[in-house]
């Protein structure tokens, strides 16, 4: 059995896999056992200070820049890569591949739409915002990392530190889970491109990097 991809599809999958390998250099941020930990100082009269343990701004921002490639609408994005792989797995009834892609895609979407363990909803200029992981990711990327949106930058500046730190912690947990989704799709691409006879043995949820999943 072989899978025949078009030249355009091959370019997209190659770009996806190259970007993922670059992202792997930052795996400590995506380790489910590593968690950005917000801590808060209170005194009589109210809130005083918020601090973030384990937070390195430059490393975090570089990861966000890489992750932006995967949530874009570019040909090498996560969802479009899933579509390419699914398109070729369907005709040959590769249930193992289709299940892996379906579970990873579902987890990916759920994580981005989640508000994390602590929900933050703010109202500014009469506009109510529910900060899902995706909303906050776009806020940080466009308002701080890329400096592309003056309004988003202003929104970040006016956000209380304790809210910002909770949202950063939520986002890091989202990135850790979605890193596993990216990894599983990279594994699927590797099997379909290089080892098409191998069967995948993925569990229902994306698994950590040391899990043996291709047999």
Question: Which structural traits does this protein have?
Answer:
about 220 residues; two-stranded antiparallel sheet; 4 strands; about 55% helix
Describe the protein's architecture and organization:
- Helices cover 55% and strands 11% of the residues.
- The protein is mostly helical and 215 residues long.
- It has one domain (7-194).
- A two-stranded antiparallel sheet has the order 1-2. The chain has a two-stranded antiparallel ribbon with strand order 3-4.
- A hairpin with a 2-residue loop joins β1 (37-43) and β2 (46-53).
- The protein is elongated, with a radius of gyration of 19 Å.
- Mean pLDDT is 81; it is low at 45-50 and 204-215.
Task: Summarize the topology.
Blueprint: H1 7-23, E1 37-43, E2 46-53, H2 57-71, H3 78-89, H4 95-113, E3 121-124, E4 127-130, H5 133-145, H6 150-158, H7 161-194
Antiparallel strand pairs: 1-2, 3-4
Helix pairs in contact: 1-2, 1-7, 3-4, 3-7, 4-7, 5-6, 5-7
Provide a short characterization of the protein structure.
The chain is mainly alpha-helical and 215 residues long. Helices cover 55% and strands 11% of the residues.
Strand proportion, as a percent range, falls in 5-15%
- As a percent range, the share of helical residues equals 55-70%
Average pLDDT number: 81
Report how far the terminal alpha carbons are from each other: 16 Å
Which structural class do the helices and strands define? mainly alpha
Give unreliable regions as ranges.
Answer: 45-50, 204-215
Q: What's the order of the H and E elements?
A: HEEHHHEEHHH
Question: What is the number of E strands?
Answer: 4
Tell me the strand order in the biggest sheet: 1-2
Query: For the report, how would you describe the main beta sheet?
Result: 2 strands, antiparallel
Principal-axes shape call:
elongated
Radius of gyration: 19 Å
